[in-house]
Amino acid sequence: MILEDHKTKIPVLLSLLLLSISAAAQTMPSVEDQIASTILAAPEELRTGAAVLGYGADDKMTELRKGANELICLADDPKDNRYSVSYYHKDLEPYMARGREIDAQGIKGNECNEKYRWKEVKEGKLSMPKEPRMLYVLSGKGYDAASGKVVEGSLRWVIYVPFATAQSLGLSAKLKRGEPWLMDAGTPGAHIMISPPGK
Fold this sequence. Notes:
Radius of gyration: 20 Å
Distance between the termini: 58 Å
Strand content: 15-25%
């Protein structure tokens, strides 16, 4: 009776596994759609030359398109529930890539920064530009390939100003929707945030 039970369960489990693998493969956007949706985060006149990092058939990040300027666009991660693409100056890539490495280990938020990235920048192990660098984040409910638009998309502007303080910039460090404010003041990851109202 036990043997028969195992014989029944194994095919069922294998079928479920194959179905989940098949479903995951179907939700992976094509390279063309990843590029088309990702470059929407960049200003229009800079999109053509931007490098695009996205996801291959193996679900791993890869370079989908080589860049001809100083900009990198990062595709939406199909494994999470939110839709978000970004575009940033290539000088920020070591910092961004390190963040992705740490995130892949399950380390999130302040712990990722305080224990790793910021510490590594201060120790000279991780490079961070000394001058301001731009990052754009385009979020929404998804990408509609037919219209070529992000559904209910909103753009957030971020200007990295490492080690800047409210005093050095003359800018508030309190969150203000629709207005610029300084986040992570005084740290290697200090940045000016400008979010659309209500986002």
